Amino acid sequence: MAEIEKPVLEVHNLRVEFPGRRAVATVLSDISLSIRPGEILGVVGESGAGKSMTGLAIQGLLEQPGRIAEGEIWLAGRRIDNLDDRSMEKIRGREIGAIFQDPLTSLNPLFTVGAQLTETIRQHLTLKKGEARARAISLLNDVGIPSPEERFDQYPHQFSGGMRQRVVIALALAASPRLIIADEPTTALDVSIQAQITSLLRRLCKEKQTAVMLVTHDMGVIAETADRIAVMYAGRLVEIGPVDQVLSAPTHPYTRGLMASIPALGARVQRLNQIDGSMPRLDAIPAGCAFNPRCNEAGPRCTRERPVLLAAGAAASACWLNAGGTA
Ligand SMILES: Nc1ncnc2c1ncn2[C@@H]1O[C@H](COP(=O)(O)OP(=O)(O)OP(=O)(O)O)[C@@H](O)[C@H]1O
Ligand code: SF4
Ligand SMILES: [Mg+2]
Fold first, then answer.
1. Whose CA is nearest to atom 25 of ligand 1?
2. CA 20 to 30 Å from 321, out of 14, 133, 136, 152?
3. pTM of whole model > 0.85?
4. Domain housing 309
5. Dist. CA 169–CA 190, nearest whole Å
6. For ligand 2, is residue 152 a contact (CB within 6 Å)?
């Protein structure tokens, strides 16, 4: 049992840099997190906080000249941040599935849904054609596509937006990956469909014991779907912990601000930027705590020393006020 409980994903002190002509932009700094089998980690934070970048770094998809400058990424006990492109290509799809905001970025309009599914399946698993077809149909059934045998031979444009995103989830699951990275998977969909897709993702993750990193700016989705939540600010992790605790009793002033910006828990908001002021540009992050210019509780220490993640109940948060400290 102890073996099963080991995290699928472990990120240790991840730092991502983009060298520029004049300076090096630090896009992610000291990010540490883990996700266990069957666990959904929701990742939230204002636009530009580094949510997508974290997912891309894990998948080995940082665009040039972006690079992992420090830290380690482990997948099921294997270090993956230092692998070459070919090894990483094998891991994508096979061990890490991806779901992006717009289903059309993952689907090729020229091929039937069935052809795309069987190709992905056969790329990663040694199955005969007929077996791959059977698996594809069963996956379409799993993700709630009615009459999967008939739908198998149809093209993406013959599916509605919600149905297309279900196909993308089937594609992500095709090779039974250990981890799924879903970056705003419902943002492009009608509000009425969003809840169906997130509850589907949650059900499949629990059934298949897949670890999920769910990036979203929708706190309603987080409340309904995630087991734990990671809050990011200016390329840093400011709070991480069980969703109930972080939503009901956030310990970081930034997380408190986020919660206060939501009319009621479960209500859906478009953007989480109603806290006074704005997130600093990455080349102008203030010394000490990156949140200090916007923080009502900042003290002298906050402009001098960068706070580290400290235990706060079952969660951890990077604020000097934690653990009876002073700011
Ligand atoms: N090629 C690049 N070179 C330098 N900085 C970059 C590059 N691409 C992105 N960034 C910066 O990285 C930061 C993190 O971006 P990221 O896309 O991860 O944000 P995000 O949290 O996903 O935001 P959103 O909610 O808008 O999707 C941003 O400040 C962005 O400006
Ligand atoms: S460390 Fe200081 S500035 Fe940062 S959130 Fe805590 S009190 Fe505010
Ligand atoms: Mg993003």
1. 47
2. 14
3. yes
4. 248-265+274-327
5. 17
6. no
